[in-house]
Structure of TetR/AcrR family transcriptional regulator:
Amino acid sequence: MTRATSRRPGGRTARNTAAVLEATLAELGGSGYADLTVERVAARSGVHKATIYRRWGGVDELLAAALEQADHDSWTPPDTGSLESDLRALGEEVAAGFSSDDEEGSVATATIAAAFQSPAAAEALRAFMEERLRRCAEVVERAERRGEVPEGTDAAEVVRAAVAPVYFRLFISREEGAGQAAARAARVAAEAAKAGEFRGSPPGR
């Protein structure tokens, strides 16, 4: 995956970088990975395609760079005062984000689809989700400090258990009610965590 964005260039280069990566996500959300081309990104961003090819190389590198930049946002997990309600809020946020009809929802859904078509997109998505899990660990760490869950509870596994049913409805069964599923999944995950079911690392990690 490209590390071009880590150089943090300034001036015109920075503006062009932002325009290209924003256009990449907009084209992905609007047309999907199959129709994502450097030419379309160039037309939308106003940056010449030769410049894009020279810096990023192609579509996969563009997409990886765009997702990498998206990983640098200021998002933080909810803090509602209890593990169950924090997990429920997380699940509801996932459901709302993917179900929305705006550009953000389209981009999020198209990114999941792209991960099945492009190894570079899959790698970028894994990195993005790892970072999100790292941030979400705070909801479990707070619960541990409050004494809601045992010391040594695997925060990432608790979060996975809480949001997995939401992703299942969104992308596997294609059922409605992903938001409603978040409440039950949060309750089950929180109760299991309190019972010590998520202490230590899972097999195979």
Summary: Residues 4-70 form a domain with the Arc Repressor Mutant, subunit A fold (CATH 1.10.10.60). Residues 44 and 63 are 15 Å apart (CA to CA).
